[in-house]
């Protein structure tokens, strides 16, 4: 992002009551530090609210050069005890994002002893190593996971051999690979994703100030769906804590966009073999994200939709949005912007006009069940 683009992003976010944090959470080498001061001043001037940071020298430079920026300690610092949290507080940190490996008990203890904002990951990918502190990606692809470049090598498919000799012979094609068992499944080291939607009240009661939902490299559809589900759970809890009940449809909603099995990470127990995905992932998400609402005309009940995936008349689609839009309808006639009838919306980002039976708002999303012919 340029600073100008950041400023535009901040203005957009503020219009919707959101804040913008910039991740500067690399483990910096000497060469990474040149231009740091100007960069931090630039993001402060762009109106960014906070930086997420792991390296002490970036914290120190921020305090000096861009004091209006809040400082959020990144999960990359692997903070899991109250003494460490106290240390970072005294160092001028405003919020600590705990390690994904911190347990619920540790979070409660930290909040009881240190008066500081605590953020925890509640949903998204986990690492097989301490969050990000891993060099698999560096070795295999020369992409540094601690400088934002992880290629997720742990999720690749690997062949397993019973002996080194078997491996060498397989490499030169002398014999078939004897995998760890007779079946032909490659092996993966991936952990299941974290999913804490069923434990929102416990997290709030533990004193957690902010929930982090992993969105890096995820689609708009995924982020919108998951955030929406957590927002509803949080709001329902605060509206009536005593009678709060987890609604199964929140989890069902997440499953519409998520494509990996979920668990509760380290919150309640040490993960074991049940918490790993040893076989290749089934990445199929049950819903396709097909469009974004750009405009809606109440009088004609017509929406202008930006195409994001193929859809056509006769298919059932579902609309959903942050302010509660949620309904299904069958796709009626489609028209291009200049009024030509279309047999399908087949071009990426194409603008399409279609009748929508209930009111929708700009940025509401439209999706369809996969396999919906
Ligand atoms: S390769 Fe996997 S374990 Fe390593 S940093 Fe990337 S996601 Fe984490």
Question: How would you sum up this structure in a few lines?
Answer:
This protein has 373 residues and is an alpha/beta fold.
Question: Helices and strands in order, then pairings?
Answer:
Blueprint: H1 3-15, E1 21-24, H2 36-45, E2 50-53, H3 56-65, E3 70-73, H4 82-90, E4 95-97, H5 104-113, E5 117-124, H6 136-141, H7 164-171, E6 190-191, E7 193-195, H8 200-205, E8 210-213, H9 220-239, H10 248-257, E9 262-263, E10 276-277, E11 287-297, E12 302-307, E13 316-320, E14 326-330, E15 334-336, E16 341-342, E17 351-355, E18 365-369
Parallel strand pairs: 1-2, 2-3, 3-4, 4-5, 5-8, 7-9
Antiparallel strand pairs: 5-7, 6-10, 11-12, 11-18, 12-17, 13-14, 13-18, 15-16, 15-17
Helix pairs in contact: 2-3, 9-10
Bound molecules: iron/sulfur cluster (SF4).
Question: Can you walk me through this structure?
Answer:
- This protein has 373 residues and is an alpha/beta fold.
- The protein has three domains: 217 residues, TIM Barrel, CATH 3.20.20; 33 residues, no CATH class; 83 residues, Translation factors (Elongation Factor Tu (Ef-tu), domain 3, Beta Barrel), CATH 2.40.30.
- 27% of the residues lie in helices and 21% in strands.
- The protein is built from ten helices and 18 strands.
- Strands 1, 2, 3, 4, 5, 7, 8 and 9 form an eight-stranded mixed beta sheet that branches.
- Strand 4, helix 5 and strand 5 form a beta-alpha-beta unit.
- Helix 2 packs across helix 3 and helix 9 packs antiparallel against helix 10.
- The longest helix is centred in the middle third of the chain and has 20 residues.
- The mean pLDDT is 91.
- It binds iron/sulfur cluster.
- Iron/sulfur cluster (SF4) binds next to helix 6.
